[in-house]
Amino acid sequence: MRSLFVSELRRFRRGALVFAAAHLALLVAVSAFDLFTPSPAKLGLGAVLYAVAGLAFGLYQLGTQRRLNMWTFLVHRPLSPGRIFVALAGAGATLLAAVVGLPLLVLVLYTDLLTTAGLDGRQYWLVPFVLGHVLAFYLGGVLVALAPRRAFALVLVLPTLYLTRQAPGGWIFVPLALVVAWLAFLAYRAFKPSLEAPLAGGLTLAAAALPIQYALYFLLVAGSAIAWQTSVVVGEVGWRSYAVHAWNDHFPPGTTDHLDYLDARAALQHGLAAGTVPAAAAGAAHLRRQVELAEVAESVPRVRRWPRRDQPGFLDADLTLVDGEQGVLWTFRHDRMLFRGTDAASGRLVGWLGVAGPAVADPAEAAPLPSVPALFGGRWVVTGPRIWQLDGGLRRLVPRFAVAGDERLTTALDDHGPFLTVLSDRALYLVRARDLEASPVEVAPFARVALPVPMADLQRVQIAELLDGYLVSFVGGRRAERGLGDARQVVGELGADGRFRVVAERRLAPGWPPAYLQRGFILSPLIATLHDVAWAAIRGDGAAEMRAAEMRAALVRPLAPSVRWLALLVAVVSALLTARVLRRRGIDGRRRWGWVAMAAAGGVPALLSCLLLTPPAAPAPRSAWRVRLRGLAAGWRRRGSEGVA
Amino acid sequence: MPERGCEFVIETDRLSKRFGRKLALRELTLRVPRGGIHALVGSNGAGKSTLFRVLLGLLPADGGTSRVLGVDSRRLDPATRGRVGLVHEEHTLPGWMSAGELRRMQRGLYPRWDETCFDEVIGHFQVDARQRVGQLSRGERAGLNLALALAQSPELLILDEPTLGLDVVARQAFLESLLFLGAQEGRTIVYCSHQMDEVERVADDLIVLERGELASLTSPEELCRRITCWVADALPPVLAPGEVPGLLQSRTIGGQQHLVVLDSDDALAARLTALGGRHVERLPLSFDRAINAYLTRDHAAPVAIADPVATTPSAGGAR
Amino acid sequence: MITVTTGDSRPIFRQIIDAIRVKIAGGELAPGDKLPSVRSLAMQLTVNTNTVAKAYAELTAEGLIESRAGVGVFVSPPRRRLSDEERERRLAEAVDHFVGAVATLGFEPEDIVARLSAVLDDLLVHHR
After folding, report:
1. Cβ–Cβ of C50/B36 closer than 8 Å?
2. Same-domain pairing of A45 and A173
3. Among A4, A69, A619, whose Cβ lies nearest the Cβ of B88?
4. Domain assignment of residue B14, given as a range
5. Which of A1, A3, A79 to mutate to test the interface with B (most CBs of B within 10 A)?
6. Which residues, including other chains, have CB under 8 Å from residue A496's CB and lie 6 or more apart?
7. B77 and B213 together in one domain
8. Distance of CA B55 to the CA centre of its chain
9. C positions 53-92 inside 8 Å of B (CB)
10. What tens digit of pLDDT does each residue of B229-254 get?
11. CA-based Rg of chain A, rounded to a whole angstrom?
12. What is the pTM of this model?
């Protein structure tokens, strides 16, 4: 086994050197664009490039070995296929570690140790993450090269499990490790002397079927969305006007989708239009007139998920305050929990900024922030319960607003002219602009409105200044499409006395029929549930209880009757079709029941995966009389030619 | 556990394999006994390469079973694989390795590696240990492949058209190495080839495959003995099937009918005369012509070869 | 030395037998001469050793050659090897064959016989 491992390493030694050098050169060239402050574009491009590199290598390495006579030489030897696979894949992984990991490590070390800026320790997570990512796609490429059917390429949906998740902190490595292990297992099982034989073994088939079903599920869900929406549009305006169709006309009032297309004033008016609380009915018309004329401001919760200390760098949101006037860039650093200021032009260190006092040269003297902040608008620094404002001239962080206890803010101070608003996870606060200007430090709000709609459901807040007081509208329904939570719009009057009275309340329904919204569940109850539970589990939106509640909700989701019947119908039809397919293909007994059970739970994707993973039936042999006819015809032809001669 | 002294090195029982609609192996039942050199012949498409791939577990069969050294092909364990050597016509070896590296790798893998055998065989070919396999000519690669295969000390050695594309010198060197360093007590060799002169030299035993089925398994002389060539003039050009039992091949050359017949006796002479033939004679047949006729018996016959000179039949039927 | 050709109408082992027989009959191989071993003749001709072994076996059965353990294969001393019937049968067969071959050539019988005697005298003189 070791000689095979070494020989495979030697096979690529020249290529490895070339690619490692090229990779390093590329990193050096691109490092001018600051690789360590992420943006979606950088992350996306990087993920794609590394994925393609890993995939291409896996396909090439095993693709060349897979050709019949090379394969014979590789496999026909006194070494078990498992060990041959370990030798080859081990060599591939080692090469990738050298070609991908080493240059990255060199870059990280260089940036940390040899530049003045340095790096946080957490930025080193980038190296194992990228390595794991490349390895996952490498193993995917190996699997696709070895697999008996091309459909196995669908298994490459697995890496999205870690690419699209935003697990808190270092937990991102859990799905990554899981995906790598999963693909390694499948590739190991696909490595057998007879490449054309189908994969065998219950566990193997399940391990192959689930990702394939997952990929098909996404394709079907997306495809059905396109099909449905196209048919709706065509039904309404016909083919010719398809391009100019505007969705905002489609949804009736009282739906969340309708509200999405309304601006602040229209949204407020929408809330007043129906569902008026009787006590306020008398003044409703008066209110509506005022709303037509008043300025309507809007605030949206911005921070739903707080960054964690020492989370991997590529998960960061924006961490830099740009002070244009002073020409200073303040970058937040996890290692010290301080802002590090550098001159925008020269890059020279300006100082370290904490929460107590001005920026200082020695970071040990500055007071660190209590947690990793969210940054807004170039000057607001928000941690959980506090808002600071950056004073560029004095180089200080001035505390401006605070909430008590374990209440958490979700916005900074949103400026709406004469007043500002702050949203926390429990209440809306209003602050007078002149109070803010007058006070050098923390400012007290003049009104606090407890959220009538929980923060998890809150989408927008509209505030209109009236002659005497304010009119506030809270729009819920954020989780309405999943059938969860509070789908209401609540409009209330905030009087001069600071009391909030509900004036109108309106139920909101989803804009689409439940069958459309739950089409994932109809197509495959199993995958839809697994997907939602897994998502809820590592969502990290909020507290643990919230997570548990979401997981429970995903498991026991509320279903409209139509959805229930449709899902049942699809399940039964899928199971029956699967049974029929398996009978045609001669698969009986426990295996057949296993597939049928999976089809009943997994619906259409399960049926499709059964078609893909089970060996097709042998084509019917030519019937005897056709053979004889053919023989006779050949005989006639022969006679004819001989006769002529 | 496979017993060491199993009687048949290759056993198949109603082995079938189809590619799409075409049956490459058609319920093939074959038993190759241990020892000696067995030649496997058959026209293209007879299923020879398919048979080897199924035997070594590289291709799944559609029906029936096959065993190599007593072990089922689908469950070949590494130890048994180490006892079976394979030399294929392409002589595909990892091109990026040098001959010496390849030898070292194989030496580490096979427990019964015979270094002296390797040296002796490779001595017939001009292969330097430092040369990269990718740069060797076909003949040199064939020699290296054979040396590697023989040095493994296999119990069963399968060669699938190994001399195809080799020049005369390489071919001679290959055959010599195979016959005198390869053929040994206790070792079975299965030699698959189209080159009838090689088969004639090499075979103890002749296995004929046709259309995925076993057509014959005897010694070469026995099969040849059964095949004779009858020449006659003035036979009707088209013979109804059944008029000449055992007819393998019928050609009209220069006005005469040449009939190659299986299992004929002297009664056939009378029969041909009765059909109108004159100057009925028996011609001696070489091995390759006999086997060729046997292999092509069901294939479409070509149009008769007309004598380019004759428009008038020559008197006396010149031979 | 002995040569064999593929593509001949006789199998290889028969070619070897005939060649050795002719050499013994013609005196090239005298009684007591050592023949090449099975293996070395096979190497020389590049044929399967079993083929040579088969040829040697038949020649031994006919009594033309004999193998002495540990030493090698030698031409046997001349002696009566075949029964009278067998010799008679073989002569009759050869005569038939010969007559059939020369009958239509258009030679006079006396000429044929004279030619035949001359050749035989030549051959058998050497043999003694």
Report:
1. yes
2. yes
3. A69
4. 8-221
5. A3
6. A468, A469
7. yes
8. 16
9. none
10. 888 887 776 666 677 778 888 888 87
11. 32
12. 0.84
